[in-house]
Amino acid sequence: MPCPEVAALFEREANTFATIVLFQDDGFARMAMDSEFSIKVPMRTAKKFGASVYAGIREYVRRSDKACAAIILNPCTFRPDIGYVAPVRRTEFSPLFKAQFGDLKLPLELTSVDEMMRFVPLGGRRMARPDTCALTDLNGSIQEFVGEGFATPYNIFVLIHARATLRRRIVIGS
């Protein structure tokens, strides 16, 4: 029986290979990046590649050239003392997000007092309307983010992206 470190390495390598094959190397990213940035893009594109929404959103964020993050939550429950509660399952960050903001510090579960909860669809809804929030970057500057959410029976997905990285710059040479 292999040691746990070797088994974990094999598991990571198998997952990497499966991701490359499933998403046709950068085919998914090229197709997704041709659209306006939105949570609906990886949802639609994942279907075309035979992938789950979960895998599609993670790949979308990992391959994005925008400052964005995905927060994956377990389904909400309601507690009379604090209202809706959604346990944080995992987070995924784009390279630019990590470079500008580091890791997003979240509690183990979001509650109605947490700013990110505004992006969680509640009351049986599947989609949450886009809304804004502010995050402080590693330089201490406040950046405006747009967030939106989508719920399945198994997970809630929140996608946030910096408004500043959505603007395209056009450089005209002399």
TrEMBL record:
It comes from the Bacteria. This is Uncharacterized protein.
